[in-house]
User: Which sequence fits this backbone?
């Protein structure tokens, strides 16, 4: 059996492709693309909530938020390691992000205006992440799937802490309830966009499904997220900002309104509310960390010299 047939048969048998296995160049390319952009999203995703660490309303909230933001950093580093198993270079990936040559999730290009945003990000954004990432635990590329298993466990904590924060605010003052509704209004539609363009406009889904990188299409996961969120919003006591949202007994799913894909394209092209500040901060953090990289390289070189001496 030739290498390509062996690869195809491994995929067909729902088995994992491992770093040392032969794989089509296209499979490697799209895996690096998806894993790198996923990693970039985790790292950039630290910024919106990170803005509230110094302004958390209590020590408890600060500790929870710190833990969550640190988790996101870990997810990013985990995923860069998965990308490296495909031959990608971490420095190169960082340059691509900073120079805008690789994407990160559109969802992180919005401002966090009140502390309720921290709760809504946990509830909706991490909730959407769970919908998207649980199937990726069965992705055909071994290191990615295994990274997802660990990451999903932490995402569940992220979603629960956000929802609990909102439940607390919703039992508070009217002003706090208004903050939660306002944040829900601002984050609902961008959360639906997180799942990617409609299947008909998705350039990668067909091939990614054939290679079992993705296990569901963008629209399937978006629908699953909407169906999951509606009862949660009812329990919370907030209204989702979509007058067309209603249960369709025939479909067994909720119908929902038109998504503004032109806005999505604008945000993905770099013209969202916070794209500029997100990349500027990431660039600055990278430059500020140059001395650490130089010191680590100098130490490694010294170790190397002593090892051969
Ligand atoms: N933001 C930015 N770009 C997006 C996007 C989004 N929300 N959705 C799609 N795109 C891009 C794609 O990257 C692709 O561009 P490319 O070919 O240059 O990479 C183009 O739009 C067409 O989209 P496709 O549907 O064809 O692309 P994919 O098949 O890759 O599907 C995806 C997009 C569903 C995001 C898929 O890549 C995926 O599942 N990625 C893994 C999960 C992920 O990256 N999540 C990002 C959020 S991180 C997060 O949730 C962390 C948590 O802690 C909050």
Assistant:
């Amino acid at each position: 059996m030739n290498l390509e047939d062996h690869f195809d048969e491994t995929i067909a048998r729902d088995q994992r492709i491992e770093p040392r296995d032969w794989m089509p160049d296209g499979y490697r390319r799209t895996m690096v693309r998806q894993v790198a952009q996923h990693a970039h999203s985790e790292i950039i995703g630290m910024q919106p909530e990170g803005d509230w660490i110094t302004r958390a309303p209590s020590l408890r909230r600060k500790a929870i938020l710190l833990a969550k933001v640190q988790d996101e950093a870990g997810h990013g580093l985990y995923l860069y390691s998965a990308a490296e198993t495909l031959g990608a270079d971490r420095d190169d990936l960082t340059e691509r992000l900073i120079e805008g040559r690789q994407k990160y999730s559109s969802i992180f290009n919005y401002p966090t205006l009140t502390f309720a945003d921290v709760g809504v990000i946990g509830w909706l954004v991490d909730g959407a992440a769970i919908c998207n990432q649980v199937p990726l635990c069965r992705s055909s590329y071994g290191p990615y799937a295994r990274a997802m298993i660990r990451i999903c466990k932490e995402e569940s904590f992220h979603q629960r802490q956000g929802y609990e924060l909102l439940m607390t605010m919703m039992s508070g003052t009217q002003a706090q309830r208004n903050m939660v509704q306002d944040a829900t209004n601002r984050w609902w539609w961008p959360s639906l966009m997180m799942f990617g363009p409609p299947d008909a406009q998705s350039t990668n889904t067909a091939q990614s499904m054939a290679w079992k990188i993705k296990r569901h299409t963008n629209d399937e996961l978006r629908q699953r997220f909407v169906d999951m969120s509606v009862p949660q919003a009812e329990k919370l006591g907030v209204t989702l900002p979509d007058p067309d949202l209603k249960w369709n007994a025939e479909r067994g799913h909720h119908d929902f309104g038109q998504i503004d894909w032109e806005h999505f394209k604008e945000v993905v092209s770099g013209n969202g509310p916070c794209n500029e500040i997100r990349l500027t901060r990431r660039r600055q953090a990278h430059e500020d960390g140059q001395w650490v990289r130089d010191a680590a390289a100098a130490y490694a070189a010294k170790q190397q010299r002593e090892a051969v001496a």
Q: What stands out?
A: DSSP finds 13 helices and two strands in the chain. The longest strand covers residues 246-248. Residues 33-34, 37-38, 41-42, 45, 72, 103, 105-106, 125-126, 129, 132, 193-197, 202-205, 208, 218, 268 surround 3-hydroxybutanoyl-coenzyme A (CB under 6 Å). Residues 136 and 145 are 6 Å apart (CA to CA).
